[in-house]
Amino acid sequence: MIRSPKELRVLARQARQSIIEMACRSGSAHVGSCLSCVDLLVAVYFGALKIERNDWQDRDIFVLSKGHAAMALYAVLALKGLLPKRLLQGYFLNDGTLPAHLDRSPSYGIEVSAGSLGHGFNMALGAAYGYKLKNDRRKVFALIGDGESEEGSVWEGALFASKLGLDNVTVLMDRNDLQGYGRPTEICYFEPIVDKWKAFGWRVDRVDGHDFKQVLAAIRKPHAGRPKMIIADTRKGKGVSFMEDQMKWHYFVVTDEVRLQAMRELCGVDHEK
Amino acid sequence: MRNNVIATIAQFAQKDSSVFVVCGDAGFGVLDDFKKKHPKRFLNMGVAEQNMISFSAGLALSGFKVFVYNIVPFVLYRCYEQVRNDICYQELPVTLIGIGSGVTYAPQGMTHYSVEDIALARTLPNLTVFSPSDPVEARACAAYACKSRKPVYIRLAKSGEPFIHPRAASLDVTRPITVRKGKKVAVLYHGSVGAEVMEAVKGLKASPLVLSLPRVQPIDFSFLSKSLAGVHTIVTVEEHFVDGGLGTSVADWLALGRRPQRLIKLGIAPEFIHGIKNSAGMRRHYGLGSSQIRTVLKRAFENAS
Questions:
Q1: pLDDT one-digit tens code per residue, A209-234
Q2: pLDDT in tens, B231-276
Q3: Can you tell me the mean pLDDT for B178-205?
Q4: Among A residues 100-139, those touching chain B with beta carbons less than 8 Å apart
Q5: How many whole angstroms separate alpha carbon B103 and alpha carbon B113?
Q6: Which DSSP state fits A179?
Q7: Which of A130, A153, A160 is closest, CB to CB, to B63?
C-alpha cells in the first residue's frame, strides 16, 4: 500500500508520541537521537520496505546501525504491527520487555542486534552480498548516524561495498549534526560528506530528512551496480520545538513536565511544515 | 594442520552450497584450491578486520555458513568487539580459523604471537573453542565446525606439525582424548605443544596419563573427572600465557569441586616477549621444551609416590 506524505506525517507523529512516552516512563536517554531519525524510519517502513506478513519469508531487511535510537525503531515496528504495542510499556524497565539497544533474539522484526556503533552497517553489507549471491532479490536498508560515521569500520565497509557491486543496499545517514558531546562538523573534518562517499564509489543523494517526498524519491532512484548512500539532513529532537538541535537531548531524561509539554506539541497540528 | 582444516572445509563445501570462505589478505598457497573451485564462495576482505568480521556475520545472517581465515590477532584481537557483538551475541554460524597459535611465528615479534587468545575466547558465551594438537585432531575440529550452527574458533599452529594420533583415527574432539595411558600423574595439553609432551613422556620410566583437550571451551569436566581417577598430580601444558587458558579452567574446576589433586600449570610467563628466538627456542625459554616438561613430570612422580 502506497501512503501519501500526509499519511506518513501522521504515522511519524504517532511514533514521536510513543518515543516521548517510552522515554518518560523509563527515564532513558537518546530521545533526541530517536526524534531525528524517526521520519526516515517511517519513510523506509511505510514507503519502501517489502515487509508485510504475507511476504515475510522474502522480506526486505532493515538494519538500525545506530542502535541507540531503538525507541524510534520499536515505535515504528509497533505501528507496522510487527512488534506488539504492549511491549512498548516495558521498555528499559526492570523486568521489562525491550532493552535500550537492540537485541534481535526475541525478533519482533528486529533484524540485527546493535548498540556499539559501526557494526550494523557492515553486517548489512554482508547480508546484501549474501542475497546477491543467492539471486535473492530482496533489498537491504541500513540507517547510520553521522557521529557513527567517525568509526573506522564504516569506512572499511564503504571501501568494499562499491567494489562488490552492492546495488541491493541503501544506507541512510541521519545527519543531525549533533553527537554525544559536540557536533561532528566541529569534532572532525566531517564535510564534504557527499564527496567522501562519492569518492568511495557510492551513489549519493542529499535530502531534507524530514521531507518524505524527498526521502522516498531518493530511495526509489535506481542505482545499478553501486550501493546507495542517502545523506539525510535532520534536526536532533525534531518535532518537539524545545528539543530541536539541542545537544542535551542526547542524554536528558524526559520528566513528566517535559512529556506534557512535548505531547501538547505532538498532539496538536501536523508538526511537519 | 591448516591444510587439513581447509581440505575438510573444501570437501564439505562440495556437498553444502552454503559454505563460504572469507580471508583477510592471508592464505596464499593455502586457500588457492578452494578459491579456484568455489570462486563465488570465496572473498578476500583485505586488510580491514572489523569489516571482515561484521561482513561475515551479515553473510551468515543471509544463510551462509562462513569460515574466516587469518592469523590469530586478526580474527580475535583487532576485531574482538565484532566477534563478541556480531557473531557470538547473535549466535551466527561463523567459524574463525586463527593461524599462528602461541609462539609459532617466533621471532616475528610480539604483535604476531597469540599467547592470550584462549583467555579472550573463553570470555565469549556461545563460542566453542578448539585448539587441536595434530593434523588428525585438526581435521576432526574442522568437521565439527562444518556441522555446527553456532560460532566456533579453531586455533591452529601452521603446517608441518607431527602426527600424534594414527592418521586414520576417528576422534571425538568434544571430549578429552586419552593419548597415552598412565597412572598417578596426568598431563593435560592442547595445541601443537602436544608434540613436546609426547617427546617428554618417551624418556620416562613411569608413564603418566596423557590427555589431549582439543576443545578448550566448553570442557567436558564430567568425562575428565572419570579419566582422572587415581591421579595425584595434574600438569597442564599449553603454549599460551600460564593464566587464562586451560590451566586456569582446570584450577577453577579443582578449587570449586574441592578436588584433592595437585595442579602444576606450565605455560608462557605473562609478559611482553622481546626475546629473539625461534619457536623451539621460545618454548624452551618458557619451560615448554620436551626435556623441561620431562623434568617436571619426573618430580611430579617423586612427589606423588
A1: 999 999 999 999 999 999 999 999 99
A2: 999 999 999 999 999 999 999 999 999 999 999 999 999 999 999 9
A3: 97
A4: 104-105, 111-116, 118-119, 121-131, 133-134, 136
A5: 5
A6: B
A7: A130
Round to whole Å and give the CA distance between B43 and B70.
12
pLDDT at A269: 53
Q: Do A130 and B81 make contact, defined as CB atoms within 8 angstroms? A: no
Backbone angle region of A17, left / alpha / beta, with phi > 0 → left and psi within -120 to 50 → alpha: alpha
Tell me what ipTM this predicted complex has: 0.95
- Residue B21 and residue A61: Cα distance in Å, rounded? 23
Report CB contact under 8 Å: B58, A119: no
Half-sphere exposure of B251 (CA within 13 A, CB side): 13
The partner residue sitting opposite B40, judged by closest CB among A115, A121, A133, is A133
Q: Cα(B76)–Cα(B74) distance, rounded to whole angstroms?
A: 6
Distance CA(B112)–CA(B114), nearest Å, equals: 7
pLDDT at A259: 96
**Do you know the residue count of chain A?**
273
pTM: 0.96
Q: Which residue of A has its CA nearest to B43?
A: A164
Chain B CB contacts of A171 under 8 Å are: none
Residue of A nearest to B81 (CA): A116
**CA of A64 to nearest chain B CA: how many angstroms apart?**
13
The Cα-based distances of A50 to A44, A45, A137, A220, B242 in angstroms read 9, 8, 11, 13, 53
Pick from B46, B59, B81: which is nearest to A130 by CB? Answer: B59
pLDDT by residue (tens digit) across A101-117?
Answer: 999 998 899 999 999 99
Chain A residues whose CB is inside 8 A of the B41 CB are 133
pLDDT in tens, A112-131: 999 999 999 999 999 999 99
Specify whether the CB–CB gap between B216 and B245 falls below 8 A: yes
Question: Which of the four pLDDT bands, split at 50, 70 and 90, describes residue A56?
Answer: confident
Taking an 8 Å cut-off on Cβ atoms, the answer to whether B41 and A124 are in contact is no
Tell me the residue ranges of DSSP E strands in chain B: 19-23, 42-44, 65-71, 94-99, 128-130, 152-156, 177-180, 184-190, 209-212, 215-217, 231-241, 262-268
Biggest distance spanned by C-alpha atoms of chain B:
61
How many Å apart are CA A226 and CA A241, to the nearest integer? Answer: 38
Q: DSSP string spanning B141-208? A: HHHHHHH-SS-EEEEE--S-PPP-S-TT----TTS-EEEE--SEEEEEEESTTHHHHHHHHHT-SSPP
Which chain A residue is nearest to residue B46, measuring alpha carbons? Answer: A160
Kindly state the average pLDDT of the residues A170-182.
Answer: 96
